[in-house]
Amino acid sequence: MKVLVMNCGSSSLKYQLIEMETETSLAQGLVERIGIEGANLTQKSENGKHVVTTEMKDHNKAVELVLKALVDPTYGVIKTMNEIGAIGHRVVHGGEKYADSVLIDGKVMLALNEFIKLAPLHNPANIIGIRACELALPGVKQVAVFDTAFHQTMPEAAFMYAIPYEYYKKHGIRKYGFHGTSHKFVSTEAAAMLGKDIKELKLVTCHLGNGASCCAVKHGISVDTSMGFTPLAGLVMGTRSGDIDPAIVNFLAKEEHLTVDAIDNILNKKSGVLGLSGVSSDFRDIIKAAEEGNNQAEVALEVFCGRVRQTIGAYAATMGGIDAIVFTAGVGENSVPVRQRICSGLEFLGTKLDLVKNNVHGKERIISTDDSKVKILTIPTNEELVIARDTKKIIEGK
Known about the structure:
- Helices cover 37% and strands 20% of the residues.
- A hairpin with an 8-residue loop joins strand 13 (365-366) and strand 14 (375-378).
- The chain starts with a strand and ends with a helix.
- Helix 1 (59-71) crosses helix 3 and helix 10 crosses helix 11.
- The chain folds into two domains: 2-146, ATPase, nucleotide binding domain (Nucleotidyltransferase, domain 5); 194-383, ATPase, nucleotide binding domain (Nucleotidyltransferase, domain 5).
- The chain has 14 helices and 14 strands.
- The chain has helices at residues 59-71, 106-114, 123-136, 156-159, 165-171, 180-194, 247-255, 260-269, 272-277, 283-291, 295-319, 329-334, 336-343, 383-396, and strands spanning 2-8, 13-19, 24-32, 40-45, 48-53, 84-91, 102-103, 142-146, 202-208, 212-218, 221-225, 324-328, 365-366, 375-378.
- The strands form two sheets. An eight-stranded mixed β-sheet has the order 5-4-3-2-1-6-8-7, with helices on both faces.
């Protein structure tokens, strides 16, 4: 079976076609600037890299372009669209309703629309992508794979906020957590690398990219995670503030004469290491600036790394111990100095980082010393493969 994995954003569409018999990626691509001038598609496969720049007024046109690229006689990877056996969609929010991936039908679509209020920036684009695929490939079954699903195992004490209980019952205000497909994938891979049954392990997985979160994975299930009601909570991120004193919102509204929407924009798009450093949201730029003596950049790095370090320690306490720390995503997989900063100060847990082994980018590797009681790993995440596996499993009814 060949599974087409779709990840639709408001103006972008990431995709990958995977042959499930061998779990081989046949093609992967990105459509950017949908509905904006200068829209383009970039596809990579064994046939090389191909770029198409064309007008793309909506996601329907984008999906049409993706399918055309996949079957193109010159740079395509399949002969006809009939080879696509199923479509798996990354859907950001499944609320409390979905603790696992699900075959998309009318009831699911109604639920996804209900969850728009919980993920107004993401779920609408996910829904548009599903509708576009339905139009382009009628009859092909589609599966929704939720970012929130992996965290539905959290106990009530971990996901409840200390606000009047009525707001949870009325509006569903609670911690949901995100990056679930990534945390699920790397925790499974970590167990395989360590040669252990995941049900015997206590792991802290650190998905560190422009968006960042940690997850406490005890015996294979999520028992806590740093993102909350929205992806704004938890760690300091590229442009997101992470956890702050909630009274700051009211203070800024009064002192700066800002609306709630304006403050929300600041906290999501102008804060994090970008706001702290005044340099960039890209860690490579911040590290370079810090090395050149920029104090704000240095502080931004230490705030970020310190927050991750604190969270790892907290989750070790939550689980009553820790067997391994896993670094993944853009920064986690590739930034040698960030991993070193985070691990510096965790020696009391039994960690020993090997500085030579730590000099690695985008590869699976155990980067702790041989005698480290707590192992430290780097594992490239593969959310698309998780989505494809779940899609195949559901379609085949296994």
